[in-house]
Amino acid sequence: MPHLRSLLADASQRLADAGVPSPDHDARELAAFALDVDRIPVGEVEVGPDQARRFEALLARREAREPLQHILGSSVFRYVTLQVRAGVFVPRPETEVVAQVAIDEAEAMAATGRRPLVVDLCCGTGAIALSVATEVPTAVVHAVDTSLDAVQLATINADASHAANVTVGHGDVTDPGVLAHLDGSVDVLVSNPPYIPAGAIPIDPEVRDYDPPSALFGGGEDGLDVPRAVVAAAVRLLRPGGLFVMEHADVQGAPTRELALRTGEFESIETRADLTGRDRMLVARRR
Ligand code: GLN
Which of the residues 100, 153, 186, 242 has the least number of beta carbons within 10 Å of its own beta carbon? Predict the structure, then answer.
């Protein structure tokens, strides 16, 4: 029977040859999944034929650059484990920093005894909304997405997280009436909208071939059609003093600050970076 150590070494090499950016990590994750354990055991471990076959099948999928998260069926975002699947955008680690800004604001408000009202526009799997809802339990969170697949998956994830303080609904941010019943009352509006410019085709097959284009491309040459709609929704939904946080591409710092500035409705407009130091989000306060 093969030993896990040699199977893993071989698997890592195959994934590296296929251009997978984190071959060791992915090989271990797939092995743990094949062996049905949380973490692969250390030392000399023999792998049975059924487990080896299972591992090989998973490995072949990853070698063909199917996203690891789709193969495993789940992804960890901050403290929540989210179901992920084809047709819905896979949450990214850099968005954890965007969620952090919304959480900090909601937490500060909750500390004063008020219940923060938080909106997540373009919620996808529900990653940001569920992080806010679970990390700030007194928050009231509304999440919407225009994709019915996303709404269904975010609802499943909300149920699984037992967060009773989050509502997931169908809503298109380009619809000027989305969440209109909350107009002028939202304390924190957070969004990771599609924003990739039309000409910037993603290089990684995991993104290019698997993330839904509607969740990637923001529309228009500059990719900012949907972000522009998010800014307009933020003006309408936020209460005076409410905080706006929106993820964007590293080249969109200045243009998104300009979008906020031009409305005349925001102050303290700034661009913040992610953990790799790249411009990643617009943060602004509603006047
Ligand atoms: N961050 C995404 C990517 O790198 C782009 C779309 C988004 O997050 N809204 O592919």
Answer: 100
- In angstroms, the CA 285 to CA 287 distance is 6
Query: Please, are residues 259 and 284 in contact by the beta-carbon 8 Å criterion?
Result: no
- Mean pLDDT value across the chain: 97
Confidence of residue 180 (pLDDT cuts 50, 70, 90): very high
**SS3 (DSSP) at 140:** strand
92 lines ligand 1 (CB under 6 A): yes
Helix runs in the chain, H state only: 4-17, 23-35, 49-63, 68-72, 95-110, 127-135, 148-161, 205-208, 213-216, 225-237, 253-263
23 is in an annotated binding site: no
> What does the pLDDT read at residue 174?
96
Q: Strand 186-191 and strand 166-170: pairing?
A: unpaired
pLDDT score at 2: 87
Distance of CA 196 from the midpoint of ligand 1 (Å): 7
If you average pLDDT over residues 194-210, what whole number do you get?
95
